[in-house]
Amino acid sequence: MSEDRYMNLKKSAGTDEEAFSRLWEIIKILRRECPWDREQTYDSLVPCMLEEAYEAVDAVNKKDMPNLREELGDVMLQVLMNSVIAEENGDFLLISVINDECEKMIRRHPHIFSEENIKSVDKVLEKWENIKGKEKGTMTQTSVLENVPRALPALTRSYKVQKKAADVGFDWDDVSGAFQKIKEETEELLAASVSDNRNAIKDEVGDLLFSVVNAARFLKIDPEQALTGTTEKFIRRFSYVERTALKRGQVLNDMTLEEMDELWDEAKMLEKAGK
Questions:
Q1: What is the pTM of this model?
Q2: What is the pLDDT of residue 1?
Q3: How far apart are CA 35 and CA 119, in angstroms?
Q4: Contacts by 84-88 with C-beta closer than 8 Å and gap 24+?
């Protein structure tokens, strides 16, 4: 392979348009000449697309701008790779992807691109959902629920489904109903847990999680973010337990649960004290 062949692609582009064209050309070359890239399909790229999106979100959460810059490039790569495959298959063109998105943004922002006057965020979101429903031809509320993507994390999907059901009045009057449901589902899970019926236990675990998400929705808490925060907190406290044990010459496998709980409580107290 001649070095001169791709020499221009090795040079940084000077404008946004040139940079976009450079990346697009690189991806088309990879599809032709790289054994791995050539074998990829829509289906095989799904895990990559999800992983890159999550890594970009992780960079945002960490306020890591250099990493976010990199991860946004990886997300763009997935969009363009799928678009190359679409062009090869004759499914659609990249220019159609871009123009369709432009048209959608214009349609869904009538308060910006037409004479319609909407000032509040709530009204903007309401208008967005109304326009989106008309575009997708969702004639029933069930179809609205069914259109919440299955690929979403389960907590997020259940939150969105519940919110859309609540839009037509299928909801508790206040959060007390959601709390009562959590209590009922907890009792049902306890009853199922003593049986050998694994399907029943799984169903009850799902029902309990769904009811907790419902309470989170009433309290205006994103359940995905809440659980992520708790998981990070668990890791921090567990790290304290292990580090402190090692300083004392102890190994976790040789410690009793009571000994580890004592260190866990220390970690909680230190967190509350801001240390």
A1: 0.70
A2: 45
A3: 52
A4: 84/27, 84/28, 84/31, 85/31, 85/40, 85/41, 85/42, 85/45, 88/31
CA separation, residue 96 to residues 15, 28, 93, 133 (Å): 22, 17, 5, 22
**How far is Cα 18 from Cα 139, in angstroms, rounded to an integer?**
44
CA 51 to chain centre: 10
Whether 253 and 198 have beta carbons less than 8 Å apart is answered as no
Q: How far is residue 49's CA from residue 55's CA, in Å, rounded to a whole number? A: 10
**The token pair that represents 34 in the structure block:** 């790289």
Cβ neighbors of 108 (< 8 A, separation 6 or more) are 127, 128, 131, 132
- Please spell the DSSP secondary structure of 232-247, one letter per residue: HHHHHHHHHHHHHHHH
For 189-218, write each residue's pLDDT tens digit.
999 999 999 999 999 999 999 999 999 999
Q: Is 24:82 a contact under the CB 8 Å cutoff?
A: no
Range of weakest confidence among 35-39, 126-130, 178-182? 126-130
Whether the pLDDT of residue 241 is over 70: the answer is yes
Phi and psi based region of residue 249 (left: phi greater than 0; alpha: psi -120 to 50; beta: remaining): left
| Structure tokens given for 116 | 């319609």
Percent of the chain with pLDDT over 70: 96
